[in-house]
TrEMBL record:
Residues annotated as signal peptide: 1-24
Organism ancestry: Eukaryota, Viridiplantae, Streptophyta, Embryophyta, Tracheophyta
Cysteines engaged in disulfide bonds, as pairs: C64-C70, C129-C139
Keyword hit for Protein transport: no
Name the UniProt record assigns to this protein: Thaumatin-like protein
Family according to the record: Belongs to the thaumatin family.
Keywords: Disulfide bond, Signal
Amino acid sequence: MSLLESLLVFFILCATLFFALTNAAWFDIQNNCAYTVWAAAVPGGGRQLNRGQSWALDVSVGDCGGVLQCQGYGQPPNTLAEYALNQYNNLDLFDISLIDGFNVPMDFSPTSSGWTRGIRCMADINGQCPNQLRAPLGCNNPCTVFRSNIVAILGAVAL
């Protein structure tokens, strides 16, 4: 390989690495609970996190080499952290969803790009869960239990 070809290959590799690093998104998942949690990411990665442990998740690759190999989105009830990166006007969007029920409180806070506020769902929903929605270690969504979207529609109207 000539010097020119070697330089071209080197330049392409450097440009690719630079692009990947400057556009990478990381999520640092921290367990601040007094108990062990099992954090999972779709597609296919997950970790057991004891109290105080964290997991740095590279969302540009999905971190599929994890210990947990998730199929779908896990078994409800589970609290979901959802995100969509580089959306309309280059915005990153995030939310906490209880569509699959609730099992652990969550704080979803950005730590870069000038953001200073996050969102939190810290209430003890399990302690307030009606008997007909209770599940081991969580509280089910009424739509799942009653197999009806009318509950979801009424809930959306009540908001």
